[in-house]
Amino acid sequence: MDIFDKYALASGRHDRVLEVGSDPFNLRMEEIYSATEARVNGRRTILVGTNNYLGITFDPACTEAAIDAIRKYGTGTTGSRIANGTYSAHLALEEVLSRFLKRRSTMVFPTGYQANLGILAGLAGASDTIFLDADSHASIYDGSRLSGATLVRFRHNDPKDLDKRLTRPGTQGGCKLIVVEGIYSMLGDRAPLAEFAEVKREHGAYLLVDEAHSLGVLGDHGRGLAEEQGVEDDADFVVGTFSKSLGAVGGFGASNHPKFDVLRFCSRPYMFTASSSPSNVASVLVAVRRMAEQPELRLRLWDNARALHDGLSNLGLEIISPESPVIAIRMKDEETAIHAWNQLLENGIYVNLALPPGTPNGACLLRCSVSAAHTGEQIEEILARFAAMAAELNERSEKTLAAHATP
Amino acid sequence: MAGAQNMRDIRERFGMECGGDMDKSVDAVVADLCDMLQQYNKEGIELTAATNLGSELNIDSVEVMDLIMEIEDKFDIDIPINMVSDIERIGDLAKLVCQRLEGR
Asked: Is the pTM of this model over 0.90?
């Protein structure tokens, strides 16, 4: 027996993906030209799957701040937050975020994934129950598991289903923590947060909202879905990431709860990992300011999102996301999805290939994410290349039909 | 209420048995689960308590969780997903359902 035998099915599936063309799960970005362009397989490629919503990865003020921080503070902290890894910049970023989010306290983490791990595993314990939306991100599942709490999954975006599960006798005792996301990463849909807040109040539960994809995207100030739906007071805990709208790496958890900071010495994923590098923290500090002071970035993002959503819908592709910076195009099966993804890449368009079990309801998706930095010309170009791909798919399926019709 | 009626039906069917004749109730649950699992049975194999969900029915991790939700609603119980990781066969799942019915 080999220790990797358990992955035989996954390996076989991956081998079949490689037979078609490039490896969608290990693609090499050879050179990054801008927030929206890179060299891939030697080709200049428009990036339409980077979650770089505000397009500020090359913002001169952000890059200068990062370079300056490296010179002043070095390349890394070589320590965790509870040892030597808390620099003035980490605390400054936490203060700036607290002010931006209108929260009493914010804890920053080296990645968004770790933010969910640290906050969920820190908040819930063995006697508590976490109610998580079925379509939650892997980091929510993993953080919930790490907490040791009882985990109950409710139907995606279904407050009535949540209410029913909160009422079942098996989940009484301990505290109840409900976890939902602002915008769901695969289908771009939003939680009906006002209704969830009502259920939360009825049952005396806590509510955590992961605004990873909605920070800088939703709300008049960009604070996310809770701001947009006017239920920030009901969101007891907010989690977010620096690796999308803020163009860097890292994550945060924030709250008004007066005892929130106890997690700094009780949450193991916070305590036992090296803190973010000074350059990373420095660029995020500037990026938060950009996000707050330049609402036009958000407006441009939405203009681009609408243009791409409408354009792709007009091509007859099956768009299963609402109007959103995340656009999910359903392909009829895995084979077609892999083929279409390769077609696009060979035509200089990078999107995400998303396959089950990483997607809801077994869907095989081409997933696009739009950036404020996409130009009108780029949107036209993206649509033209998608049109070519769609035409090729039609031709291909007609050929298959013809082959079946004449044995 | 439809839910309450459903719960009474289930109690009538399983309530006594889960406390007493454990094997018989597990068999009844196995039969119900086999019906529910037909939607995943693409190869049309015979489903029994010994059928392995992963290696024989090719049900992936998310499909298992979706199945758990359906089972929760059918029996009006909750089955926390952290109790599901050791489940390999339909029989294991049926035993878990009985345990949860008993504990209700």
From this structure: yes
* Residue A16, both tokens: 């079949």
What's the token pair of residue A150? 């009882």
Contact between A360 and A376 under an 8 Å Cβ cutoff? The reply is no
Residue A76, both tokens: 């890394």
Using DSSP's 3-state secondary structure scheme, residue A330 falls into strand
* Region of residue A219 (left: phi > 0; alpha: psi -120 to 50; beta: else): left
CB contacts of A120 in chain B (<8 Å) are none
Pick from A91, A137, A83: which is nearest to A114 by CA? A137
Distance CA A56, CA A261 (A): 30
Total number of domains constituting chain B: 1
- What type of residue is A16? R
Q: Token pair of B53, please?
A: 């969900």
Tell me how long chain A is. Answer: 407
pLDDT band at A320 (very low <50, low <70, confident <90, very high): very high
Distance (Å, rounded) from C-alpha B54 to C-alpha B75?
A: 23
The A43-47 sheet, strands edge to edge: A31-32, A37-40, A43-47, A349-350
Q: Report percent pLDDT > 90 for chain A.
A: 92
CA distance A198 to A193: 9
Residue B48, domain CATH: 1.10.1200.10
Contact A55, A297 (CB under 8 A): yes
Q: Would you call A152 an interface residue with chain B, using a CB distance cutoff of 8 Å? A: yes
Residue with tokens 């503070």: A73
> Under an 8 A CB cutoff, do B104 and A170 touch?
yes
Say yes or no: ipTM exceeds 0.95. no
Helix (H, G, I), strand (E, B) or coil at A255: strand
- Cα separation, A300 vs A61, whole angstroms: 20
Reference A240, options A84, A73, A78, A103; nearest CA is A103
Distance separating alpha carbons of residues B50 and B67, to the nearest angstrom: 17
3 state SS of A40 = strand
Residue B83: domain span: 2-102
Question: What distance lies between CA A131 and its chain's CA centroid?
Answer: 20
Task: Suggest the residue from A168, A171, A179 to mutate for an interface test with chain B (most B CBs closer than 10 A).
Answer: A168
Is the pLDDT reported for residue B102 higher than 90? Answer: no
Domains of chain A: 8-47+295-405 (3.90.1150.10), 60-293 (3.40.640.10)
pLDDT band at A400 (very low <50, low <70, confident <90, very high): confident
Chain A positions in Cβ-Cβ contact with residue B65 (cut-off 8 Å): 134, 153
Q: Are A237 and A206 in contact (CB under 8 A)?
A: yes
